[in-house]
Amino acid sequence: MEHEVIVVGAGPGGSTTAMALACQGRDVLLIDRHAFPRDKACGDAVPASALDQLFSYGMKERFEEQGFYPVNRLLISAQRGGVLEADLHRSPRGTDSYVVPRLQFDAVLQAHAQACGARFLQATVKEPLFEDGRVVGVVARENGHVHEIRSQIVVGADGATSAVMRALRPEPERHQDSHRAVALRAYIEGLDELPHEVEFYLYKGILPGYAWIFPIGEGQANIGLGMRIDKFRRLGVKLEGLLDRFLDMPGIKKRLRSGWKLQNVATWPLSFGSQKGLRHAFDGALLVGDAAGFINPLTGGGIHNAITSGRLAAQTILEALGRSDTSAASLRVYETRCHDAMWRDMRRSLFFQRLLGALPGVADILVNRASANSRFAEAFLSKL
């Protein structure tokens, strides 16, 4: 088995890479260990800017026919009563932001990648295949059998615990705990939601993380919280206990209807895009999305950056294949492109994250003094 490009992981980053390449007639094999639809723990907020990128690959009709839940307002609440509400930005093309369970969203992306011409294979990638120090494919387990699949380029898009990333980045070259987080997500039924409004809660016990409520329909929401992993370990608590405390807050508790329930509780790790010096381009391989560590360090949002990195990876791969040069030197322009596209937002978000971590009381000051055009609000408004 041999292909021009193998993309490992069919989440937003991987499916975007695959559809962008397949739209240009390239031979792409998209591999995921799950059949679709499949769940993925996430806050489920999809910003308008991410959708505009997807729509450029002809996905607009496929997305809009699903009837997903749009959101157009944002609320940020601090512990001492400070509240900021603002309109979410529509994109210049008039696109709304949405809250879409990843069970549905990823299935739409994966199906569109196939419609564009990518081949899909359900298999578990154990590791990249190396030859003379460069990546030349993957070793995959399919239906209980392990075999090699060769390619000119491998794209690691298999999440924060990526098998591709672990093989390419030795332990000292991975994310430090101060640039990582852990999060918990659940779906709640029986909550009085704020219609079409996403909610962020900043309070002392969780900063520089936050809790959230993202509505997905009448009486239903994605609810959860996340914390920087070094602080989480120092606290010695369980995320489930922290969620119980959040639900017991007076302002939240009064919105719970009789018989309310939580479903599909799941935890997952996140790696922030704020750590300098990490490699994303190698001989015959690139990392995109969560596998690269492109999570926003303030909001924890990763879908926009995953899609952006997938688009930039496809651009870089098309150029490399055109010159028949898939060396690290040839692919390194991808790192520059990702830096130019994301670093300004990462740096701004890291500043606020570190400020809130060091001085939790600043949350109320920021929220009380913020306007919809402030740098603090913009960090949430532009990158859910």
Quickly describe the structure:
This protein has helices at residues 12-22, 48-55, 60-64, 102-115, 163-168, 229-235, 239-247, 250-253, 289-292, 303-322, 328-331, 333-358, 362-369, 375-382, and strands at 2-8, 28-32, 45-46, 69-71, 73-78, 83-87, 97-99, 119-122, 124-131, 134-142, 145-156, 180-191, 197-202, 210-217, 220-228, 256-271, 281-282, 285-287. It is of the alpha/beta class and 384 residues long.
How far apart are the first and last residues' alpha carbons, in Å?
40 Å
Low-confidence stretches: none
The radius of gyration over CA amounts to 20 Å
> What fraction of residues sit in β-strands?
25-35%
Structural classification: alpha/beta
Sheet with the most strands? Answer: 8 strands, mixed
Let me know the number of strands: 18
Helix count, DSSP H or I runs of 4 or more residues: 14
Write a structural description.
The mean pLDDT is 95. The chain starts with a strand and ends with a helix. The radius of gyration is 20 Å and the shape is globular. It is 35% helix and 31% strand. The longest helix is centred in the last third of the chain and has 26 residues, at 333-358. Strands 1, 2, 8, 9, 10, 11, 17 and 18 form an 8-stranded mixed beta sheet that branches. Strands 6-5-13-14-15-12-16 form a 7-stranded mixed beta sheet, with helices on both faces. It is an alpha/beta fold and 384 residues long.
